[in-house]
Amino acid sequence: MKPTLTAPVGSFTELALEILQLASELDSKLARQNRKQTTFEFDTLQDLPTDINATRKEFINKTHAAKQLALGASGILRELVFQFTDDITLRAIHDFGLAQHVPLDRPATFQEIGQASGLDTSIVERILRHAMTNHIFSEAPGMPSGRVVHTGTSRLLATNPDALAAAFPKDIFLTTSRLSSEQKQWTIPANEPIVLVKDLASISIHLNEAILRWRDLPGDERDEPTQAATAIVYGPGQTYFEVLKNDEARAARFSGAMRHFAEGADGDVERMVASYPWDALDTEKAVLIDIGGGTGGAARAIATNTQHLQLVVQDLPGPVTKGAELLPPTLGSRIVFEAHDFFEAQPRQGVDAFFLRYILHNWSDKNAVRILKALVPGMKHGTRVLINEYVLPDGPETRYTQKFHRNLDILMLTVWNAKERTETMWKEIIEAVDPKLRFKGSRPIEGSTFSIVEAVWEEPGATPMGK
Ligand SMILES: C[S@@+](CC[C@H](N)C(=O)[O-])C[C@H]1O[C@@H](n2cnc3c(N)ncnc32)[C@H](O)[C@@H]1O
């Protein structure tokens, strides 16, 4: 029998014992899956089943809390005030192509990397040694010091342009081990800035100026995307979508980053489709409109997983033209694309379902309500409104693995003057549209942190609709 360790309440030992318990649970679950031991070099934790991921997240949360506790109040602050240095080294790695100058299969010296990138050896060494503290690159084990090899994260930066475009320096789920030969051949154009670290973070630092500039406007007048930090940087009246329209390279990086998230388990459209009972909707002649459906990625997945549902993808002229070109002939009879501004009244009537994926979090409450109100002419008794978004927890939330959502919320605030929402906030938005639009709750997407928030249009006197 194993000895039972006990420890004073609240002690480091007590916390460590909880961590030990989780570590042992995680190891046994992974062993049952025949997974190889994960390392910084090769991440074997991809596509874990939901229950193992839950244990993994608990393990991350507890170890993070232990680290914070051990750092102490001033230690936590010291880490935070220097956090910008992580972004700086990531930018340097990106801009000078340092990850590409380390071969995928053998070490390179600081000098070789310096020669290949046109930088002083000492600069390369200082940048990479800082990055190594985040397990981006490491020194070749068993060799004299100064020989750099890839870790999983640096290899990802070297080989996957979309991951680089997305480059969240602290994305705990960056994964790398499944490199196809095609991925290995990808090259990243030099000096392409990184979307989040550079394109968006450099806007976000102007948040305080934006707050001060517009804070005295009354209530809902301070609710426009033109009042975000974006307009401080790009000039009065500018929104980030306008900036993207006028800058092709930036727009391409932005789509790359979105693609990277969509490919990850969290944003996986297949998981979203698998988590919703489409059967009740999937009747002959039933119509679902994907509002702001882009080039139709979600519509294609829904069509593939249903039999009858007719899908209409509405978006601005650019994406719908592209979506129509990309549409495989096999789905030609099921999906149509039409240009429609979602602030204008819905031109189609008697629609069975409206679907909005990653739309409303880019808009303030006032504008989110406007977008939903514009759908009203298309409603009939029983019309469902399905909103695929993050749902922030309603209560206080200190789990580290939930920080991603808080990061996104700050990003929405700074760049779009918009927000992520809790379930209560979603309910308020829906109830502000029309008394006939009834909030029905939210349905978590299995294996993801997204949800589908659901509302149904109910005409008085008709049979109430359930979930
Ligand atoms: C964050 S993307 C989400 C795209 C898609 N739903 C998805 O899940 O990938 C927002 C979409 O809203 C579209 N959009 C922005 N303003 C719009 C407007 N006024 N009318 C219609 N679509 C708009 C954009 O073109 C873009 O495709």
TrEMBL record:
Residues 231-431 form the O-methyltransferase C-terminal domain. It comes from Daldinia eschscholtzii. Keywords: Methyltransferase, S-adenosyl-L-methionine, Transferase. One of its GO terms (molecular function) is O-methyltransferase activity. Pfam families: Methyltransf_2. PROSITE patterns: SAM_OMT_II (PS51683). This is O-methyltransferase C-terminal domain-containing protein. The keyword S-adenosyl-L-methionine applies. Transmembrane segments: none annotated. GO terms for biological process: methylation. The keyword Isomerase does not apply.
